[in-house]
Amino acid sequence: MRRGGLKIRILIGVAIVAFAFIKKCSNRTHNPYTDRVQNINMTSDQEIAIGLQSAPAMAEQHGGLYQDQKLQSYIDMVGNKLVNSSMAKETPYRYEFHLLADPNTINAFALPGGQIFITYALLSKLENEDQVAGVLGHEIGHVLGRHSAERIAEHDFWKTISTGASVGADMGGLVNGIGQNVLLGNGRDDELESDKLGVLFMINSGYDPNEMIDVMKILKAAAGPNRVPEFQSTHPDPENRIEKIKEAIRAYQGK
């Protein structure tokens, strides 16, 4: 009886794992803006809904919105110029730009569907409008690249795999560990893809893409000497990003 029960559990576990792989294959989606095939299990409308629902909580975590309409209008102007001058305008996403009050955290990030944030701490470090465009262009790249949606699909995939493994044998913890690694924010390839798209958006909007190089230098200086080495981080080292940005500038400007 025990042996029969174990066999049934293994069969159920195998079936669940097989279902996860079949579902992943069926979710293969071509992104026309990056020309990349991705594992996506949601529509653009669902991405927009997730971003809108999550935006208030994200703002609250960073002290709310910065209470200066002039600065907010400035962020809106730069962001909308980037969108309206590029293929981002052709996407179904609703791009909205938010200046966060956080005076200490040097950061910018994007939620799925077009909600984009930059902290006052980062804005205060930037030296000109072109650098602001570099930061916002990079974040628009994350939205257009559907990086959050891709991570959500990966999370669902590993969650299903974990369930199947747990049913079939006591190895769910290992699979859960793999899934968690997948979920540690945007990966290196995502960051580099967004840098490249950001360069393109800057050029299309009349901004100097070389200023994105200076943004990387600002980020590196802000991180200080104790920055986590690249091989231990999900983000590429700023020096590596600078080289890739230079390559993108040469490619897009034909130099």
Automatic annotation (TrEMBL):
A Pfam family (short name) is Peptidase_M48
- Any idea what this protein is called? Peptidase family M48
Instruction: Return the similarity comment.
Output: Belongs to the peptidase M48 family.
Sorted alphabetically, the Gene Ontology cellular component annotations on this record are: membrane
Which parts of the sequence belong to the Peptidase M48 domain?
A: 71-248
InterPro entries on file: Mito/Outer_Membr_Metalloprot, Peptidase_M48
> Its Gene Ontology molecular function terms?
metal ion binding; metalloendopeptidase activity
Question: Among the record's GO biological process terms, what is one?
Answer: proteolysis involved in protein catabolic process
Please give the superkingdom of this protein's source: Bacteria
Q: Which keywords label this protein? A: Hydrolase, Membrane, Metal-binding, Metalloprotease, Protease, Transmembrane, Transmembrane helix, Zinc
